[in-house]
Amino acid sequence: MTATVTVGPEELGDEIGCDALRPLLVGLDIDGVLSPIVEHAHESALLAGMLDDIIALCRVTPVAVVSGRDLATIERLFGFPEDVTVVGSHGLEPRGTTVEPSSEERARLAELVALAERAAERVGEGAWVEHKPLSVALHTRQSVAPGRSVEGAAWLGHAAEQVAGTTIKFGSEVVELLARPTSKATTMAELREAARAASVLFVGDDVTDEDVFAVLGDSDWSVRVGPGETSARHRLADPGAVQQFVRRLTNRLTSRLG
Ligand SMILES: [Mg+2]
Question: For the domain that residue 127 is a member of, what is the CATH number?
Fold first, then answer.
């Protein structure tokens, strides 16, 4: 594995803006990348000016936001315009589609919801359960007892393993149980195909984004935001750095168009 390089946002914008093959598909996670991580996921908001920066970028190259959040919440919280491709639930909810769980998935989800609620009770104060069309997530970021959070997350992971057909995703202080398998890597591969992209750039900050980094090739670019182990080639410090990077990348791509 190549070592991850921490670079300045402008430097990285120059590098990718000049060297990326066109068309370049830009894939972006939302939380921790375009919006700072907040105590409660429902309070999340894009950094000031970020939406305009994304709109400017998508005028010069295809842009997709791929988030673990359900589509309805993405639309309500962030308001991306039509030109931006939006995919929710780690790939299960492309914008313009409606998720229809099968009866088997419905039954599996009901079982998983019951487990997540039991886990939240085990963790106690501050833990909460998020409901999505095909998954359920236990959030422990606001838990008052970190030890019980770790124990509750482990208990939930183990219990969910016994439910056949479940995909389990451990994120940063969240455990998500999916009744239908998916991954951001598959989603980005489909989007690459659809955009006939010659290069893909993906920017993410969490475990589910690592699935994408792991499958990107030599003419692609992977950027991890914030600390943590990663297989990404580059690292940026925080959403503020992402914003500077996006601006610089847009400038570079625009001058190449001219
Ligand atoms: Mg994230």
Answer: 3.90.1070
